[in-house]
Diamine N-acetyltransferase
Amino acid sequence: MQIHLKDIDNDNWIECIFLTTNKEGQHFINEEFVASNAVSIAQSKIENGWITKAIYDEDQMIGFTMYGFSYEDHCYDICRMMIDHKFQGQGYGKAALGKVIEEMKKIEDCTEIFLSFEPENQIGKRLYESFNFQDTGKIVDGELLYSLKLK
């Protein structure tokens, strides 16, 4: 497994928007636990602070992430992370989350990372807790808010 992050650009954006977490391969604006990649890319062009990256295993695009500074919430946030349905259950989520955290640690004033997820997303919960994300006890838009202190 050779996981790396790559900017969304003219060469890969179409492939990226066709990734889906839906087991049947169908595309929706809002998927079970995450907004579609098309919505996320559009959001990143309208709202300042977001970084969008495709997640690759060597030359194969396997997922998408959006992270950065949320001007709305005034904090650093992993806003989106998804692994395409064809690659789920193979350890890619853990490897990709590790890469995103590595990138966010390089941001000088990023001392804490937040993320939120639906309470039903037990796989996500176990993943985040394996990286020592802690439950803040807050619920935002029906999602549990977790944080990881970096410094």
